[in-house]
Design brief:
The protein has 68 residues and is mainly beta. It has strands spanning 2-8, 14-15, 18-20, 26-29, 33-34, 37-43, 49-54, 62-67. The strands form three sheets. The protein has a four-stranded antiparallel beta sheet, with no helix packed on it. The radius of gyration is 12 Å and the shape is globular. The model has no long low-confidence stretch (mean pLDDT 97).
């Protein structure tokens, strides 16, 4: 398990964090919120592997998470 300390500095713009497994299924979905604000997301333990993370409001905002 781990936490994401997410700071949204975009005034009046919504963001969130969703983590997806290799099949595109959401294994974690953080609350969508407007900035300027922050959230601490508590993510449950994930199995070893590679995961995609993204903002569902802005689907081109993506990254990759590797769990060992």
């Amino acid at each position: 398990a781990f936490q994401i300390d997410f700071q949204n500095d975009d005034l009046g713009i919504q963001h969130n964090v969703v983590i997806q497994d290799g099949s595109g299924n959401a294994v974690f979905a953080g609350e969508t919120f407007s900035g300027v604000d922050k959230r601490v997301y508590s993510v449950p333990p994930l199995a070893a592997g590679t995961y995609k993370f993204l903002c569902t409001v802005h689907p081109t905002m993506v990254g990759e998470l590797t769990v060992q």
